[in-house]
Amino acid sequence: MVVDGGLSEQLAAQGNDLSDALWSARLLADAPGEVVAAHRAYYVAGAEVAITASYQATFEGFARRGVGRAAAARLLGTSVELARRAADEAREVDGVAGPLWVAASAGPYGAMLADGSEYRGRYGLSVAELERFHRPRLEVLAAAGPDVLALETVPDVDEARALLRAVRGLGVPAWLSYSVAGGRTRAGDRLADAFALAADAPEVIAVGVNCCDPREVEPAVRLAAQVTGKPVVAYPNSGEHWDAATRDWRGPAQPFAGLAEEWVGAGARLVGGCCRVGAGAVREVAGVVRG
């Protein structure tokens, strides 16, 4: 199954300014039509799964902008509605055939901080504190009716434990996806230990990696499948590195679609891209997956 690319990449290509601390979540209120157009572009490119614009959408982040809790909850629900609308338009206007799915994004605590700490983890919070942060947002997203919750860019096992607790009883399946570097989580945990947390979690229907260097994916996919016995999700970034100080991506991009064949061969069943991966690359990945 083909997952979309970086929502921010498509939104930027459409001319949107994403320099705000809310990132793409700002457009849920300011330009919802742009979010629909971005999801639709990925569906047309061959994606079967759209990840919502809620990665950086949190009650705390919206509160800093003067958005109250009730309004923030509506915007979280809107993120799912916009992806559904894009799927409808892709079918009715663009003639896209086959099932189209919506994954409600729940980014890590560090995404709310908007300082790059989601690439470090270990925020000084307990698992219980992280669970209290995540649960209300996940409840709202689940109530909006996505097909799956995308627990993504998770940097360490503490946050994974919190997220796995937070999704219990919500009635919506989830995938758990770590951001990795050097064969470990961003915080330095052994990947085998990190993946093992999801092995016995009935809510988790897939486990894997995202927003990492594409060259990290193939061994991580093999390990995730071996440790959990579950389908594996893989959607890395372009291989560039996020500079939190300049709020920009640095370094060279890595070959993408060519590596996707390796990921599928290693056992990945949901494949796409994350930051800096646009519709063109997703179209190539779709060719690999369907081939």
Automatic annotation (TrEMBL):
The lineage of its organism: Bacteria, Bacillati, Actinomycetota, Actinomycetes, Kitasatosporales. It is an enzyme of class 2 (transferase). Coiled coil: none annotated. Its cofactor is Zn(2+). The gene is mmuM. The keyword Transferase applies. It comes from Streptomyces odorifer. It comes from the Bacteria. Its EC number is 2.1.1.10. One of its GO terms (biological process) is S-methylmethionine cycle. This is Homocysteine S-methyltransferase. Zn(2+) binds at C211, C274, C275. InterPro entries: HCY_dom (IPR003726), HCY_dom_sf (IPR036589), Hcy_S-methyltransferase (IPR051486). Residues 1-289 form the Hcy-binding domain. Keywords: Metal-binding, Methyltransferase, Transferase, Zinc. One of its GO terms (molecular function) is metal ion binding.
